[in-house]
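Friendly challenge for the regulars: who can give me the structure tokens for this chain first? No prize, just bragging rights.
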Amino acid sequence: MIRSELLAELHKGNPELRAEEIEQVVDIFFDEIARRLAEGGRVELRGFGAFSTRERDARTGRNPRTGEAVSVEAKRVPYFKAGKEIRERLNQG
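First reply, four minutes later:
Bragging rights claimed.
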């Protein structure tokens, strides 16, 4: 699902809201998740999953085109762990 499909589904379920209002809610939702992760926090949505960050150490990588060694700096990356309910829905049947 892409962003426009998400907005359309939310609008279908909430016809009393204008499209701009739904888009604003979605923007706030994702901005708050990103802000909390940038602060080093964690976001847990019961039944869905938890967003957090993980530290990646600096390493030597390879340029896939040339095979040349490339230095990759240490960084934080987003991490998502699915909740029990969503895992069960994915593995039904």
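The chain has a mean pLDDT of 95. The chain has three helices and five strands. Your move, everyone else.
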